[in-house]
Design goal:
binds adenosine monophosphate, Rossmann fold, 9 helices, 7 strands, five-stranded parallel sheet
Amino acid sequence: MRLIFLGPPGVGKGTQAQRLSVQRSIPKISTGDILREAVKNKTSLGLQAQSFMDSGKLVPDEVVIGIIRERLKEADAREGFILDGFPRTVPQARALASMLRQDQLNIDRVLNFELSDEELIRRLSGRRSCPDCQAVYHLEFSPSLKPDRCDRCGGKLIQRSDDQPGTIRSRLEVYRSQTSPLIRFYEDEGILARIDGSGTPETVYRKVAAAVG
Ligand code: AMP
């Protein structure tokens, strides 16, 4: 099963992708996670991406397309994958389609997660993440057992630099202008499913499971 999880930052697509990945034994591939890891390790990719990420802008298409091209060649992605945070522009979507076409493959379904801006801001500003294992918490909705410590690996939780109020606003604007046209793009292909992102992770997961069959 080859899936794309589409939606604005903070809508919960990463959380849902993680659950589905475990349930269906297919990898979740998140360009945001790959880029954050590169920034943490100060690789040349990380150095190239950091200023875009810190200001809430998109990393250039050719950079993220290159990341996905390499990642999809890995053995674990052969039987399927969940793309979380990619594609984010129409050129990225076209590049993905042409990559898959070369192997006579295609995307089975695109899940578009929807939520009001007010709720997105609430979710993003309370989000805390573990820089060591990428686990995600929320101060109010899913706090860690010990304050500031990751339940999974004990790492010190941080607020992502792009989850600060000013940057959140730019990311939502970038989403509206550059990413939301993909809704129409995949609707035209007849593979889009709309998912109401409000409610608990369990409620949303039931809708996700129903949409992917
Ligand atoms: P995310 O964790 O998906 O919210 O991504 C965090 C940041 O990484 C974004 O604000 C962008 O700067 C960058 N990024 C992640 N995925 C992409 C993508 N597909 N295209 C361009 N930039 C991306």
